Amino acid sequence: MKNHLTGKNLEFEVKDIHSDERAQADMVEMGMMSIPVTVIDGGTPIIGADFKKIDAALG
Questions:
Q1: What is the per-residue DSSP string for 21-49?
Q2: pLDDT tens digits for 26-57?
Q3: Cα–Cα distance between 21 and 46 in angstroms, integer?
Q4: What pLDDT is stored for residue 45 in this prediction?
Q5: Which listed site, 20, 27, 31, 50, has its alpha carbon 20 to 30 Å from 12?
Q6: What is the pTM of this model?
């Protein structure tokens, strides 16, 4: 995921649910149970490495 977004010269924030309790709570709040989860500009969470959906959400 990082490589895909970096390759598009995009800025992004990585939240590590293994070491960040707030990131864990955010995932639970969204009802997500698997990673990666990508949220673009507060939009609908995209589960997994679904590059087609991510690229479509980026416009």
A1: HHHHHHHHHHT--SS-EE-STT---EESS
A2: 999 999 888 899 999 999 999 999 999 999 99
A3: 21
A4: 94
A5: 31
A6: 0.80
Query: Where do we find the tokens 């990666």?
Result: 36
Q: Are 18 and 27 in contact (CB under 8 A)?
A: no
pLDDT at 34: 87
pLDDT value of position 47 = 94
Q: How far is 10 from 55, CA to CA, in rounded Å?
A: 12
* Closest residue by Cα to residue 8 from 50, 54, 47: 54
Six token digits for residue 20: 């960040």
Nearest to 17 by CA among 44, 45, 40, 36: 36
